[in-house]
Amino acid sequence: MCKYVKIIILLLSLIKSTETFRLFSSDAGTYKEPRPFFTSSKQLIDDYFDGNLAPVSRTINSHTFVFVMYYANFCGISRRMRDPYEKAAAFYRERTSDGNVTLDKFHVKFIAVDCFHYNGQCRKTYKLNYFPHMFLYVKGTRGYQYFGPAIASNIIEFIEKIRMPVMRLTHVNDFLDFIVQYESTVLASFDFSNDLQRQQSSLYVQAALKHIEYDNEHPVRFAIILNQSITDELSRLYVNNTFQTPFVVLHQLHTEPQMFPNMTNNFTMENLYQWIINEESEAHVGWLIPRNRYYSHSPSIDKATVTDALTDYDNLLLFFTSNRLDEIKLRQIYFYLSSCNVTHSSRWLEQLERLYNDSFADLPENLNKTQLHRLSSCCHYALSQISTDDLYNICLLNYPLSLLNFSNKHANVCLPILKIKSVEKLCVELYCQQWLRNSSLTYEKSSNTNRDAVLDKRRDKFYEQILKIQPKKILEGNSSTEKYRNFLCGINSTWAIRLINSRHYPNFAQNIGIMNTSRAIIVLQPKLSVKRNQRFVRLTKRYKAYQQAHNEQHYILNDTHITTENIYKLIYEISHNVRSRSYTSIPNDEAVINHSNKLIELTTDTFHPIVFDSTKHVLVVYYTKWCGFCQSIWPVVYQTKKFFENFSDLIFTRIQADKHDLPWHLTAYHYPTIILFPAKKKNHSIVFPTSTESITSVSLIKYLLYHLYIPDTPNDHWCQPSNNSFLSMLSSTYVDFSQISYLVKSFS
């Protein structure tokens, strides 16, 4: 009876499935019925899964900012974008109560359209060759395409840049912070009482928007000067230039500012955009992102991405971090090492140091229990005042906590504390990050009481950790660093610094030996083939230097050792070739030198002394445990080893290549790989030709005999009896390789 019940349940489930995915027919074929792509109950996205464009056009015309995702239901990249797209939509939704009714206000409207549905208007109108296409439409202008990764914070950052493409500078300190915070900046000044200059300012904003859209790899920030004192300060800094309104200037820390030529007759949006692209130098310090322009298609940082970054430099310092403020510190470090020809370098260094320190919530280490309790209480009280109505203003628009309506009892105690910038950052910044990560909790359909309970629960959890999870600061060292200042100016070696977000791209760090850390430094040096436009003579010299140093790839500085002084020391020692490179390796108890039935297991540390022993021929098998074919060749290798067991000058070894790093010229990238290192010719290693030969006992023995024991032309001396029993057996006849299989069987 139970058996029949199970069959009936199965049939019912199939019927239900058929109802969910009904098919419809047409002259062109049979297709699935359209179904929603965003199925969450949060109702954050207007999903037009039938491909209808009419409501999309109406929404774009009626809202200031509308983000539209043109997707295909079957597309894996579209599905990967679905969750971060919903999180970004939640970030811009503000919920307000009107009596017993909860109203939603969207500061940015989010829409999704299935543009692959067979009979949909979207597919008939647009011929899209990939998915998803994502556009932020601004009322009165056009749509700006998002090319970024499927990460909610990146989507939000893109939206905020489009919403505010140009910074408004009203104070000198804001101006100084702005030009050091970004390596390349564009500054402009216009007289808004002049009709022509108002039109030029509009073109300036359009150029900024186009740069944000198309040049994410080399971000340049734009600003408008609104105070004459800033123009005066700019004139004092660069006395050789005259800054008379209107002007547009490209400011880069390592070069003199460049003025846009002929503001009267040559000022168009396209000319300004092209001028910035042509004149802008590549940043020495910046964030590394996936190499594909359509970053959502390439969600991880791979070897090709790093190779591109290495193309024009001798050394690449990769800094793995989840703290965006580290970019400011690394810019200061690079500037300290290479600012010998820069005007006002000391002032820029001081400004970078101040900006970095002010951005951190530095709490005194000697707080007593009473002070610590008071600080914690004020943070907790301030956060308890945050309602869902305040979240948008506080977390996105930096609305000060001190402006909240506190009761008189708490105002006298907490307001003086919360006015301290570092304390306010500590109270708010991490809470906002947590709010964004857990935004789904806030927007579940629930009563006001349940909503407040959820917020209180999260506040309590945050309160317990608030003083323990402050962003880590790069500390200074104890010794003087004066000897490192500007030393990069006097050496023939180029450096670039790239930051990688360790939270979004953890795999690359793990692949080269960095585990369980949020911050680390790796210095990479390129292979010879990476460098472009170099003469062969120079390559030959560098090749010899690399051979002597036995290094190529990376030097690692772990989290516990990252200080300003150690970073200076690392760059200095690598530039002068006195730093030993880092290798990834795991302990291996089987790495002993004996000639038993087992192969010798090599590690990073034992590879060179064993393989480069000039008295031994060494056969190395590169393998990995996840390689299925590698497991099938071991009987062949063991049989070959037994065949040569009386050859005391031949050693059989193997190395687990994905667990033990080697210099680039000794590294294999396909598994299994078999390489022979002859005794007297270690620099002339011989790779087993797997492309033309199968890995069998016969082919391996043929390969070893041919390259080690049988000369090209047999002579009388070779035919004489020797101490080697096998050569004695073959003393009068040249080996016929076609008959070697019989020899193999006799030794098996």
TrEMBL record:
Residues spanning the signal sequence: 1-20
Residues annotated as domain Thioredoxin: 580-706
Keywords: Signal
InterPro entries to which the protein is assigned, alphabetical: Thioredoxin-like_sf, Thioredoxin_dom-contain_11, Thioredoxin_domain
Transmembrane region(s): none
PROSITE patterns: THIOREDOXIN_2
Origin: domain of life: Eukaryota
Pfam families given in the database record: Thioredoxin
Identification of the protein by name: Thioredoxin domain-containing protein
Native source organism of the sequence: Adineta ricciae (Rotifer)
Lineage: Eukaryota, Metazoa, Spiralia, Gnathifera, Rotifera
